[in-house]
Amino acid sequence: MPTQFSLYAWLSHAHRLHKSVKPQNSMHPQITEYIICSEKHKETLAALRELVHDSVPGLTEDFKWGRPVFRTQNNFAYLKSAKAYVTVGFFNFGKLHDPQNLLEGTGKEMRHIKIKNVSDIDSNLLKEWFKSAAV
Q1: pLDDT above 80 for 25
Q2: Model confidence over 51-66: pLDDT tens digits?
Q3: CA terminus-to-terminus distance, the chain
Q4: In a 10 Å sphere around its CB, with 0-12 CB exposed, 13-18 middle and 19+ buried, how is residue 55 labelled?
Q5: Theoretical Cys-Cys bridge with 89: which of 12, 95, 112, 116, CB 3.0 to 4.6 Å?
Q6: Mean pLDDT of 31-53
């Protein structure tokens, strides 16, 4: 009988690996823990993390300001779990093409979008934005 491998089990396994071995893909153990501890948004956070890695090979993960932050030479994106959504934030948002005005915020250098669940993720758009922001 095949075994079902739940997202929680996968994240728990990944977390144990991160504690014992430095992974090649620069996954940060505190980010894995952040995802595991997220009450409502585990699946969304895990999918967004994977999408960032798929979009920007060689990136580095950091855990700053209480949230996952992704960088190449500079910080380019972050994730933040809120009660009703996950915020995907972008540093230097001026690099992003946003003709539909989906980005929110009023800061000089940062903008964000809100993702309520995994089905709201526009992979093509976010890949484009992650690539553009990472340069």
Answers
A1: no
A2: 999 999 999 999 999 9
A3: 47
A4: buried
A5: 112
A6: 94
